[in-house]
């Protein structure tokens, strides 16, 4: 089966079933990674070399296993589909952001704060409506890149091994890639590897947002605002997405009790419930565009 058909099948499976409710492979992987981290970074004393060793132990064997299974006769195609399905988080993203928009429309600010707290790491207890909408819109744009477009990219490039390598690396970055006393040294490798694996997909996601939205404004924001962001990949994605939507994102936010003065992203109206919905629709349209390109490319290649 072609990469295009396998991708369509995995996206359809995600749309139909969503994330596995029980026995999700990434949950088991997270528990394994946590035990390895405790072994190599006990008390936060691990050095960069310990982080590299731990990353290799956690990621490489599972990537090799995915490679072997994808080459298995008769069932290799099924392994490919299941690998991409487990790596995608498209339906789950929608299930998390839509309740935030619904709560804002119902003027239930407490519920909106609670719901957006599932999406972001910033403190949400004192956010006003605009700040809640801004956080949710930023999250849908960034997670659309990380959880959807990057997974599709690495599957198209390297099949099941590529998407497994990417998803496990991205998960370790979420677990170990913090700039704090415990993970500053140990999590360095996980953060850098994730930055590397996301470099091209993030820019393709930013281009996708630009093409499907306010293109000139999106490209302008990408060029001028993207480099001001701390993350080399989230900056272009959220700047282009904010410009594509014609909405103001970024600005100050509190993380772990500390105020972070983040740059402004985008131009236009303040974020609201509509910007959350439009951001989610932008991600969905982008996925359809990518699948169309894959199918046309497969037909042309054939």
Write the layout of secondary structure elements.
Blueprint: H1 3-17, H2 25-40, H3 48-70, H4 76-87, H5 90-105, H6 109-116, H7 129-176, H8 188-212, H9 215-225, H10 234-245, E1 247-250, E2 253-255, E3 258-260, E4 264-265, E5 269-270, H11 273-301
Parallel strand pairs: 1-5
Antiparallel strand pairs: 1-4, 2-3
Helix pairs in contact: 1-4, 1-11, 2-3, 2-7, 3-7, 4-7, 5-6, 5-7, 5-11, 6-7, 7-8, 7-10, 7-11, 8-9, 8-10, 8-11, 9-10
Describe the structure.
With 302 residues, the protein is mostly helical. The protein has one domain (3-301). The protein is built from 11 helices and 5 strands. The strands form 2 sheets. Strands 4-1-5 form a 3-stranded mixed β-sheet. The protein has a two-stranded antiparallel ribbon with strand order 2-3. Helix 8 (188-212) crosses helix 11. The radius of gyration is 19 Å and the shape is globular. The mean pLDDT is 95.
Helix content: over 70%
Strand order in the largest sheet = 4-1-5
* Proportion in β-strands: under 5%
Helix and strand sequence: HHHHHHHHHHEEEEEH
The biggest beta sheet is recorded as:
3 strands, mixed
Q: How many distinct domains?
A: 1
Flag low-confidence runs: none
Radius of gyration, in Å, reads 19 Å
Dominant shape: globular
- Quickly give the structural class: mainly alpha
Average pLDDT: 95
Short description, anyone?
The protein is mainly alpha-helical and 302 residues long. It has helices spanning 3-17, 25-40, 48-70, 76-87, 90-105, 109-116, 129-176, 188-212, 215-225, 234-245, 273-301, and strands spanning 247-250, 253-255, 258-260, 264-265, 269-270.
């Amino acid at each position: 089966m072609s990469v295009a058909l396998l991708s369509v099948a995995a996206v359809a499976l995600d749309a139909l079933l969503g994330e596995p409710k029980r026995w999700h492979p990434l949950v088991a992987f997270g528990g394994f990674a946590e035990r390895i981290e405790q072994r190599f970074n006990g008390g936060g004393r691990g050095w960069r070399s310990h982080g590299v060793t731990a990353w290799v132990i956690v990621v490489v064997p599972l990537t090799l296993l995915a490679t072997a299974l994808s080459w298995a006769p008769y069932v290799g195609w099924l392994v490919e589909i299941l690998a991409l399905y487990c790596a995608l988080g498209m339906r789950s993203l929608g299930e998390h952001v839509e309740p935030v928009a619904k709560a804002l429309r119902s003027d239930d600010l407490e519920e909106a704060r609670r719901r957006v707290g599932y999406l972001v790491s910033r403190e949400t207890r004192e956010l006003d409506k605009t700040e809640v909408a801004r956080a949710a819109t930023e999250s849908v744009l960034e997670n659309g890149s990380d959880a959807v477009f990057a997974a599709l990219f690495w599957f198209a490039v390297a099949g099941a091994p590529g998407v497994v390598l990417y998803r496990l690396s991205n998960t370790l970055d979420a677990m170990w890639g913090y700039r704090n006393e415990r993970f500053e040294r140990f999590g360095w490798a996980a953060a850098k590897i994730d930055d590397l694996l996301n470099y091209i997909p993030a820019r393709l996601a930013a281009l996708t947002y630009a093409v499907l939205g306010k293109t000139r404004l999106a490209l302008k924001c990408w060029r001028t605002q993207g480099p001001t962001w701390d993350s080399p990949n989230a900056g272009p994605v959220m700047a282009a997405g904010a410009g594509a939507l014609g909405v103001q994102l970024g600005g100050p936010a509190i993380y772990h009790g500390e105020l972070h003065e983040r740059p402004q992203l985008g131009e236009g109206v303040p974020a609201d419930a509509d910007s959350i919905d439009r951001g989610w629709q932008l991600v969905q349209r982008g996925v359809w565009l990518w699948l169309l390109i894959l199918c046309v490319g497969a037909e042309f290649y054939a």
